[in-house]
């Protein structure tokens, strides 16, 4: 079964599939970024989540090139293997994809002249991998040591940076002075990029809740239904913990309707 290529993600992770440990760390980083509210993808997530191991219509090579060429941001996972295939793709198939993506990044950097507003490099092993970075990238791209929690938070802030006005919808015209005042818009809290849910295999549910709380979706409620011993209580507990982190302890409460007492007393 062949499926057409999906829309380009806001953030594309370009990396070299050097070994299972390295690929696993990249996947874990991508999921962590999604939990922080970043629209991110890479080939591993796309194969598992979008195509269910089917090929996109024009093949994975073109898919990677489109992502690297059109994504708002490209996060390069800096490694000796990724840097080695730049302008010299190796004979093995696992190096060709990284080479194609690297050449797209280099072309975008060249076309951008002195400015680089899309590419950044992340390292898992800053001390070793930094030695192999090409001089051109070293002068053009910022770098984040992903082994440090504070660097992850800084990376999330960078990926969430405002984009240029040319790439977003036109601004709403300013109302004339004689126009009646519009209602004050709701102010939604920002995401907490450093929060990590203490649970497994519930990324989709947690992301939906975070989107609801931050006003990035029109949904205003979440109904959780499952059989006993499927982790509902733990999931709600993590929702509550995240809410307190984002809204503050005075603005978020947990009401347990399973406890004894009337509904009126609980709500009071």
- The DSSP helix count reads 11
Query: What is the average of the pLDDT values?
Result: 76
Q: Which residue ranges are poorly predicted, with pLDDT under 50 across at least 5 consecutive positions?
A: 1-5, 164-184
What gap, in angstroms, lies between the N and C termini?
56 Å
* Proportion in β-strands: 5-15%
SSE-based structural type: alpha/beta
| Largest sheet composition | 5 strands, parallel
Order of SSEs: EHEHHEHHEHHEHHHH
Bin the helical content: 40-55%
Largest sheet: spatial strand order? 2-1-3-4-5
The rough form would be described as elongated
Taking all Cα atoms into account, the compactness measure Rg is 22 Å
Q: Quick summary of this structure?
A:
With about 270 residues, the protein is of the alpha/beta class.
Task: Describe the structure in your own words.
The protein is α/β, with parallel strands linked by helices and 268 residues long. The protein is built from 11 helices and 5 strands, in the order E-H-E-H-H-E-H-H-E-H-H-E-H-H-H-H. It has helices spanning 20-35, 43-50, 59-70, 80-84, 93-111, 126-129, 135-140, 149-159, 203-213, 232-247, 263-267; strands at residues 11-14, 40-41, 73-78, 119-123, 142-145. A 5-stranded parallel β-sheet has the order 2-1-3-4-5, sandwiched between helices. Helix 1 (20-35) links the parallel strand 1 and strand 2. The longest helix is centred in the middle third of the chain and has 19 residues, at 93-111. The radius of gyration is 22 Å and the shape is elongated. The protein starts with 10 loop residues before the first strand and ends with a helix.
């Amino acid at each position: 079964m062949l499926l057409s290529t999906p829309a380009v993600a806001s953030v594309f992770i370009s990396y070299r599939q050097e070994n299972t440990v390295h690929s696993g760390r990249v996947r874990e980083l991508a999921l962590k970024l999604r939990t922080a509210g970043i629209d991110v993808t890479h080939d591993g997530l796309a194969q598992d989540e979008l195509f269910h191991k089917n090929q996109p219509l024009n093949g994975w090579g073109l898919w990677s090139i489109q992502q690297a060429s059109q994504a708002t941001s490209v996060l390069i996972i800096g490694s000796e293997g990724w840097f080695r295939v730049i302008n010299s793709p190796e004979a093995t198939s696992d190096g060709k994809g990284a080479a194609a993506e690297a050449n797209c990044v280099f072309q975008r950097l060249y076309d951008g002249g002195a400015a680089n507003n899309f590419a950044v490099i992340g390292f898992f092993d800053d001390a070793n991998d930094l030695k192999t970075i090409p001089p051109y990238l070293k002068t053009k791209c910022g770098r984040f040591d992903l082994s440090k929690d504070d660097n992850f938070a800084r990376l999330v802030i960078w990926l969430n940076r405002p984009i240029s006005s040319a790439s977003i919808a036109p601004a709403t015209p300013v109302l004339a002075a004689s126009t009646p005042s519009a209602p004050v818009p709701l102010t939604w809290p920002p995401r907490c990029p450093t929060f990590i849910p203490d649970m497994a295999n519930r990324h989709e549910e947690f992301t939906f809740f975070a989107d609801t709380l931050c006003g990035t979706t029109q949904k205003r409620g979440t109904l959780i239904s499952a059989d006993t011993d499927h982790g509902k209580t733990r999931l709600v507990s993590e929702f509550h913990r995240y809410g307190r982190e984002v809204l503050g302890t005075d603005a978020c409460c947990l009401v347990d309707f399973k406890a004894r007492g009337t509904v009126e007393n609980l709500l009071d």
